[in-house]
């Protein structure tokens, strides 16, 4: 009996040691101190690239695959009037000739691929025009692209059709053309209303101009209006952030996104910060305080939190595309720089405009990459969607992951509960506000467990048998550790 207890203790210690890299710090304020950094979770993680020589045949199989009961579509417009310092999506400056040629290619790509879709294809429940800046196109170009999508793709009658837009150059003619072509949701990347903060990041319009534009857009009652805000921008103090929140609520949009600034490698802001040009750059602790302030403010105003970064004020805002993309449903993708998911494959479309145009004119899908997920991909998608929505039922993973992996997850979630990141109710995990802020770290950890990066499935000390649930060793030790993800 004593020998068995010793073996059990050694196994628990090894489990503790292997999983400790994913532990959260324990303390009085986990929102501020649970981890030293926020993990990035890439959508193509753990996928195997299809060799270039096999891509055409694999793509043909993707097109012939029968999708699930529903799916979404994405159209990319890779043009911007200027490169905002924080943006990692900028590709091409606006050029009338380039945008006209691109529109022709995009229409051809959508039309030709739609003809290949199997008869009775699953309906498209959400269509998203992103960028770049789709509103950089002319009213006629926007209307033509949208009408092509409506004519060629099997959109549902209540399809959510979103257009990303910026305040600059988005005039009434463009807005009316988009509405006439079926747009029922517009997302405006305001980032901040503070004139100085905006202009330091390359935004051209002032606070007053931004407010006037949104007030005018708000009169289109058939539209769901969504405002995107960024917290953590240089010069954006807590007072500025509170004013951004008050201004947003006063404008009464249907939804709002609160995103933390991410210094994407290679962006002008990242390079400038590395060179010391923004000494007032917000720390991660500053960002956590902004997230807390934003969540508290919107809750007090009666807004409903739909995901970790998104809030809803009215039923007009469904947030359908963003929810379904997290769930991993099939996503048809069109346009240079776009990315999609179909038939168990993720794919990227060539981001080089010249190569994109040449491929479309030659009758080829301009693929830059194609990859396929492994057997654990459905489990990863469920984890991502669950944590993004603020709750995950581990029981839903039973058929998707081995028992040993589920035991490791349970072990880890007990530590996270101790650290104040979530609450465990049976098999359900409910994220606290701190857990929502650090959700990408939780997804990252579960992804590692699903991929076998942590503790081995079985220990030789247990005779190859999975360990039974037990009280974790860290309940006594973790408070004395300096363990971060």
From TrEMBL:
Which key words tag this protein in UniProt? Iron, Iron-sulfur, Metal-binding, Methyltransferase, S-adenosyl-L-methionine, Transferase
User: This protein's superkingdom?
Assistant: Bacteria
Gene Ontology molecular function terms on file: 4 iron, 4 sulfur cluster binding; metal ion binding; methyltransferase activity
Question: GO cellular component annotations, sorted alphabetically?
Answer: cytoplasm
Q: Which Pfam families match?
A: Radical_SAM (PF04055)
PROSITE patterns, per the entry: RADICAL_SAM (PS51918)
The biological processes this protein is annotated with in GO are: methylation; porphyrin-containing compound biosynthetic process
Q: Where is the Radical SAM core domain?
A: 65-301
Cofactor names: [4Fe-4S] cluster
Q: What protein is this chain from? A: Heme anaerobic degradation radical SAM methyltransferase ChuW/HutW
What organism is the protein native to?
A: Corticimicrobacter populi
């Amino acid at each position: 009996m004593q020998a068995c207890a010793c073996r059990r203790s050694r196994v628990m210690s090894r489990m503790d040691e292997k999983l400790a890299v994913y532990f959260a710090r324990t303390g009085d304020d986990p929102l501020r101190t649970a981890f030293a950094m926020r993990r990035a979770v890439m959508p193509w993680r753990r996928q195997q690239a299809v060799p270039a020589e096999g891509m055409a045949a694999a793509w043909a199989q993707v097109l012939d695959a029968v999708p699930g009961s529903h799916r979404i579509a994405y159209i990319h417009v890779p043009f911007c009037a200027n490169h905002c310092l924080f943006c990692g999506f900028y590709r091409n400056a606006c050029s009338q000739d380039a945008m006209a040629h691109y529109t022709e290619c995009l229409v051809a790509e959508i039309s030709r691929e739609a003809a290949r879709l199997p008869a009775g294809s699953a309906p498209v429940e959400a269509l998203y025009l992103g960028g770049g800046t789709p509103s950089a196109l002319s009213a006629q170009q926007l209307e033509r692209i949208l009408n092509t999508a409506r004519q060629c793709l099997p959109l549902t009658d209540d399809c959510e059709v979103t257009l990303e837009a910026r305040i600059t150059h988005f005039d009434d003619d463009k807005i009316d053309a988009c509405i006439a072509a079926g747009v029922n949701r517009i997302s405006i990347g305001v980032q901040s209303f503070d004139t100085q903060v905006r202009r330091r990041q390359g935004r051209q319009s002032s606070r007053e101009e931004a407010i006037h534009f949104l007030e005018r857009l708000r009169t289109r009652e058939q539209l769901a209006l969504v405002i995107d805000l960024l917290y953590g921008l240089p010069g954006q103090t807590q007072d500025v952030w509170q004013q951004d929140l008050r201004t947003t609520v006063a404008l009464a949009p249907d939804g709002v996104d609160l995103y933390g600034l991410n210094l994407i490698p290679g962006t002008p802001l990242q390079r400038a910060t590395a060179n010391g040009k923004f000494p007032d750059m917000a720390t991660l602790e500053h960002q956590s305080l902004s997230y807390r302030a934003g969540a508290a403010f919107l809750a007090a105003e009666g807004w409903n939190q739909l995901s970790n970064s998104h809030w809803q004020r009215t039923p007009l805002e469904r947030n359908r595309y963003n929810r379904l993309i997290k769930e991993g449903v099939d996503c048809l993708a069109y346009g240079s720089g776009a990315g999609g998911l179909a038939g168990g494959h993720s794919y990227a479309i060539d981001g080089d405009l010249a190569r994109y145009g040449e491929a479309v004119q030659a009758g080829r899908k301009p693929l830059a990459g194609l990859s396929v997920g492994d057997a654990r991909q459905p489990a990863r998608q469920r984890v991502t969607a669950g944590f993004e929505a603020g709750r995950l039922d581990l029981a839903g993973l039973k058929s998707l992951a081995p028992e040993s992996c589920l035991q490791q997850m349970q072990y880890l979630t007990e530590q996270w509960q101790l650290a104040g990141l979530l609450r465990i109710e049976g098999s359900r995990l409910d994220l606290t506000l701190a857990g929502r802020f650090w959700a990408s770290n939780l997804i990252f950890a579960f992804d590692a467990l699903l991929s076998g990066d942590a503790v081995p499935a079985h220990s030789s000390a247990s005779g190859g048998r999975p360990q039974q649930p037990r009280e974790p060793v860290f309940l006594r030790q973790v408070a004395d550790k300096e363990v971060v993800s």
